[in-house]
Automatic annotation (TrEMBL):
One of its GO terms (cellular component) is microtubule. SMART domains: KISc. GO terms for molecular function: ATP binding; microtubule binding; microtubule motor activity. It comes from the Eukaryota. Transmembrane segments: none annotated. Residues 9-57, 113-147 form a coiled coil. The keyword Magnesium does not apply. It comes from Echeneis naucrates. This is Kinesin-like protein.
Length: 513
């Protein structure tokens, strides 16, 4: 069955590739057509100008040389005059008029006029032809635009089919490099991995329960992808970029990183400042704006709203807050009548380019580090949720889409030894364990298609409700540290991730109107 699906996926990918080539050539044809329409319009404008000039010339001759009128007047006066003297006078006037060449001028003017009239008729016929040509070209352009739109809709459908075939919930495992080893595949300490399988064996070191194992035991796990220690940020992002495209096509997308402190969650989600080490969030933002701009040429107009929130000890904190610390507002999660989840008093920032979002991420980091200084190691004990609300409208086609891209860096999943955790630390531990285990419960309930899903049991699941339910595509990273002393925590993370991987979330449907 799996091979069957893989075959289907590769068929669909071929189809998409051929479709993209077609869309590209239609685009090129369109550009050429646009050029020829513009040329025809300039030609028509020139012809019209020439025509107007000629008509003005004719009008000018008629106004300034009324020879016909003068001669008629003289002739009629001559016939009507009674005296011979006056008749002679008039005849001599007519003679002078004729002598001065006015007659010649009059006739040549008449000839010119008839030539002009035939030119005018010809030019008018050419103008009619050109107008017809322009109309045909406009029709072709409209037809091409229709084809382009149909192509884009077909691309969305195919893209979504591929995502569904790959599964609406996917789990990727990423092994953090140790200080000395950076293997693509193979074994780091007690972890051996290939492209989709990971085996973990436990001989000769202490497990998290404190027992030393003397017999080797293998734990095998399968995921949608396993990224070795050598996998670059770009390689990791390539797999996610397809989901990011889905967010722009109107599907809710949620990507979260799970794992113990120091296993590489923040490195995966945010990465470093340098270009090639940038993580999922900056890369996703870049892709969204680039793809949005491209769709702009097909009549789509997008608006984006960003928010960044931290969940610490089951309370929410706005990471984009810029006011006085003493006036920080309280926040509540609310669900609107149309099932949209919002947070009260939260900063929802309208953004229109990548730089603005990167500025907001820097502000969030600043806000987090302020809290971090006050409270040591706080960031690894809080969940941080970045959300980008995307609204797209294609007014010409009366199509709208709406979705949310949700990128989450979860709190460290490690369990503290009970006797060591007291006071604040115990409270934190309870909050983290509560929300992470509720995340597992929610996903299991969704997988079992239970009627009641306990989203409200923790702030995290309540907030991520839209991204975890049926109408979404979810990707979970399980980040693991390969070192021997992380054995217990790594095994826990792998087990949790395995449970998520076994879930089948209902087929997502695009929020399109
Ligand atoms: N794939 C990787 N390649 C290179 N360095 C990595 C990788 N993953 C993690 N690191 C490094 O390991 C260290 C710990 O990673 P990181 O801070 O991302 O862990 P974390 O799980 O987010 O921890 P915390 O819960 O404390 O936030 C960092 O110095 C990071 O740069």
């Amino acid at each position: 069955h799996a091979w069957d699906l893989k075959g289907k996926v590769s068929d669909l990918e071929d189809k998409i590739r051929s479709y993209q080539t077609r869309v590209k050539s239609v685009n090129q044809e369109n550009e050429a057509l646009k050029g020829s329409v513009a040329e025809s319009q300039t030609k028509a404008a020139q012809v019209e100008k020439r025509l107007e000039k000629q008509q003005n010339q004719i009008r000018y001759y008629n106004n300034f040389f009324p020879c016909e009128t003068v001669l008629s007047y003289l002739w009629i006066s001559e016939i009507q005059s009674t005296s011979r003297k006056s008749r002679r006078k008039l005849r001599s006037k007519m003679f002078i008029f004729w002598k001065r060449g006015y007659f010649y001028f009059f006739f040549s003017l008449q000839m010119k006029l008839s030539v002009q009239e035939s030119t005018l008729a010809r030019v008018q016929a050419t103008l009619r032809d050109t107008e017809e040509e322009v109309r045909c070209l406009k029709e072709t352009v409209a037809q091409q635009n229709d084809d382009l739109h149909a192509g884009e809709m077909e691309r969305r459908r195919l893209h979504n089919t591929i995502q569904e075939l790959k599964g609406n919930i996917r789990v990727f495992c990423r092994v953090r490099p140790t200080v000395t080893e950076t293997l693509a595949f193979g074994c780091v300490d007690h972890v051996c991995f290939t492209l989709q399988h990971l085996s973990y064996h436990s001989s000769g070191f202490q497990s998290h329960t404190g027992k030393t194992t003397d017999t080797q035991k293998n734990y095998n796990f399968s995921f949608d992808r396993v990224f070795g220690a050598k996998a670059s940020q770009q390689e990791v992002f390539e797999e996610i970029s397809l989901l990011v495209q889905s967010a722009l096509d109107g599907y809710n997308v949620c990507c979260f990183a799970y794992g113990q402190t120091g296993s590489g969650k923040t490195y995966t989600m945010e990465g470093e400042e340098f270009n090639e080490n940038r993580g999922v969030i900056p890369r996703a933002v870049q892709q969204i704006f680039k793809a949005g701009e491209k769709l702009g040429s097909q009549g789509w107009e997008f608006s984006f709203t960003a928010s960044f929130v931290e969940i610490y000890n089951e309370s929410l904190r706005d990471l984009l807050y810029t006011g006085k610390a003493s006036k920080r507002p309280e926040h509540e999660i609310r669900k609107s009548a149309n099932n949209e989840v919002t947070i009260t008093n939260l900063t929802y920032e309208k953004v229109s380019n990548e730089d603005q979002v990167l500025g907001l991420i820097a502000l969030a980091n600043q806000n987090r580090s302020t809290a971090q200084t006050a409270q040591n190691d706080r960031s690894s004990r809080s969940h941080s949720v970045f959300q980008l609300d995307i609204e797209g409208i294609n007014a010409g086609r009366d199509v709208k889409c709406k979705s949310t891209l949700c990128l989450v860096d979860l709190a460290g999943s490690e369990r503290l030894v009970k006797s060591q955790s007291q006071g604040e630390r115990f409270k934190e531990m309870t909050a983290i364990n509560g929300s992470l285990s509720n995340l597992g419960i929610v996903i299991t309930a969704l997988a079992n298609k239970e009627n009641y899903i306990p989203y409200r049991n923790s702030k995290l699941t309540y907030l991520l409700q839209g991204c975890l339910g049926g109408n979404s595509k979810t990707l979970m990273f399980v980040n693991i540290a390969p070192e021997t002393d992380s054995f217990g925590e790594t095994l826990n993370s792998l087990r949790f991730a395995s449970k998520v991987n076994d879930c089948v979330i209902g087929t997502a449907s695009a929020n399109r109107k």
